[in-house]
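Researcher: If convenient, please comment on what follows.
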Amino acid sequence: MDSKPLCRFPATAPVTDMLEAFDADGGLVVEEMVEQPVINAIREAADLHAEGVVPGSADQGMGEEGTFFVGKNTKRFSSLGLLTDAFFDLLRMRSTRRWPMPCCCPTAVPIG
């Protein structure tokens, strides 16, 4: 299977161009879409919180089957908005509001 690199766009590129690349390739990279201080705050908060999470302790409320799904070495936690206001800063950023709602899904992940 041939793999080609994803198209890269500046955050200021027309959304129509980005969506065209997304439709063609199933993904794209939007450069400098998220401001570095926001990325740093989110990363620091998540890293600090993860230090207190026991690997394999999450079971998604499904007991043993959930533990099997999550894995024994995975540190899984939620409620990220409670860790730092930077998560909400990310949601309020002008650059993220340019995207149509269908792109705000797990397959469209902003990479700083």
Notes: The two ends are 28 Å apart (CA to CA). The beta strands are 8-10, 29-31.
